[in-house]
Amino acid sequence: MDLAEIDRRAFDSVAAARLRGLEFVLPRLSKAADHGMLWFGLAGALGSTGIPALRRGALRGVIAIGLASPSINLVGKQLFRRRRPLIHNVPPIRIHRIPTSPSFPSGHSASAAAFATAIALEAPKRVALPVLGLAAGVAFSRIYTGAHYPGDVLAGILSGAVAGATTRLLWPTQAPAHVTNLNRVIEPRDSQGAGVIVVSNNDPETIADLRTELPHAEFVNCQEDLEGTLEDAAQRARVLAVCGGDGTVSAAAAAALRHDVPLLVLPLGTLNHFAKTLGIETVSDALDAYWSGSVARVDVAALNDVLFLNTASFGAYSELVDRREGLEKRIGKWPALAISAFRVLRHATPVDVTVNGEPRQVWLAFIGNCEYGTRGAIPTTRDNLTDALLDVRLVSVKRHLRRLRALAVVLAGRLWPLSDYESTLVESLTVTSRNGLRLRVAHDGETEDARTPIVFTKHPKQLTVFVPI
Question: How far is 140 from 236, CA to CA, in rounded Å?
Fold first, then answer.
């Protein structure tokens, strides 16, 4: 008995089945999934929640369908051109319409699997499992309503799952990184925030809800002398909490490290890379971590004596940050970033440095605190915050490298790094400018002229932070 015969017999078995209660439900579920409308509607609902993980999952799901649907309908169906099943054994009540396109693979099943896989990559289990169940229902409905053989559905599910997983190449997932959990809680701990000092550079209205949740905490709003304010707060606090972007959080981490107090990161900055790496995407996540008392140790990195938590860089990126800061107060951060990137592309030149004693002309350099999981010149996500390593990414001039080629290395490198791109993991790195005593560097969104040689080092498992359980 060949596979086609097995497939036909399996279809006949399903066609002959009488599943009480599903005669009404499954045909309507199949119809709802026509042209992906069920999934697009669900994506809109998840995106409107305002929960970052669900919004990312919804967008990833739409991208996954965008990959799966054309490959199934324009390639798979035209390549195999399998005829639809004979539906004489299928009760008319189940059939809402008779498709005219080829049968193999199932497009409905591919879209369902693509969306469900994408959601599973981002969303918590309480959301992902119902979506997976809904996708399974749609896939089975395609057999039950006589639209497809079981083999068509299985092929569609496999194709959709591959499309969902492929989105990680285009857009890496964000999951909490590995940390060294101390398996203890911070005591004494007050649920209303006694002993917590919250340092913020946000507008007071932004943190109004925090005052309600932590009525016994001390709140300090700081627009000037951030380091001095953090130093004073860390000396007095049992828990140092910080609101702001990654630059503010890095300064708070340095103060917390000097005074050996745990750091509570409240993600109220623009990007919040470090908070997201810890698994803290919202203020509610941060408060839950505080109330649970769960703490862990993570690595920090330093360039000379300045700590950073995410990345440091020099070359074109430092120039981009400077240009963006000069424009963003007038036109906003994202338009300023776009204009600055265009100007840097036109005018940037490589910097002459020695890297661990080797002369280089560098267009772009990133030094990451711990290994980043994505390829390419621009790191994005990490799986481990305790590996004691620096992740070094360089776009160097090995031959005449035009600006457009440098841009291609940066943009396309995530998928397929070109020969001008280098990546390595080291415990320390020394960079010296060959054209002067100082080098313009950026670290966690801040820029400065650093005296060379610049020594990049690690402080493994030194910073204590609150993390979700």
Answer: 62
Could you give the residue range(s) of every CATH 2.60.200.40 domain in the chain? 311-459
311-459: CATH topology is: Tumour Suppressor Smad4 (2.60.200)
Dist. CA 61–CA 67, nearest whole Å: 10
H helices of 104-180, in order, are 107-122, 125-144, 150-170
CB 387 within 8 A of CB 349: no
Residue 419 CA to residue 365 CA, distance in Å, equals 15
pLDDT in tens, 262-321: 999 998 887 788 998 888 888 888 998 898 888 889 999 999 989 999 999 888 777 777
Q: Respond yes or no on whether the N-terminal peptide bond of residue 188 is cis (omega within 30° of 0).
A: yes
405 pLDDT exceeds 60?
A: no
Burial letters 297-334, b for 16+ CB under 10 A, else e: bbbbbbbeebbbbbbbbbbbbbbbbebbeebbeeeeee
pLDDT digits (tens, 9 = 90+) for 135-175: 999 999 888 887 888 888 999 999 999 999 888 777 766 65
pTM summary value: 0.68
Place of tokens 């396309």: 412
CATH architecture of 190-292: 3-Layer(aba) Sandwich (3.40)
Structure tokens at 335: 């338009």
In angstroms, what CA-CA distances link 200 with 121, 210, 240, 306, 439?
Answer: 33, 11, 11, 20, 30
Give the number of C-alpha atoms closer than 13 A to the C-alpha of residue 102, restricted to the C-beta side.
Answer: 14
pLDDT in tens, 218-229: 999 887 788 899
**Distinct helix (H) and strand (E) counts, the chain:** 16, 16
Distance of alpha carbon 279 from alpha carbon 444, whole angstroms = 18
Does the domain made of 3-170 have the CATH classification 1.10.606.20? yes
81: tokens are 């051109």
Q: Strand 294-303 relative to strand 180-185: parallel, antiparallel, unpaired?
A: antiparallel
Within the chain, all domains assigned CATH 3.40.50.10330 are found at 190-292
Angle between helices 333-347 and 316-331 in degrees, nearest 10 = 140
**What type of residue sits at position 139?**
A
Rounded to whole angstroms, the Cα distance separating 164 from 111 reads: 9
Strands (E) across 4-156 are located at none
> What distance lies between CA 265 and its chain's CA centroid?
18
Residue pLDDT, tens place only, 338-388: 666 666 666 667 888 999 888 888 888 889 999 987 665 456 678 889 999
Residue-by-residue DSSP string for 306-341 = EEESSEEEEEHHHHHHHHHHHHHHHH-HHHHHHHHH
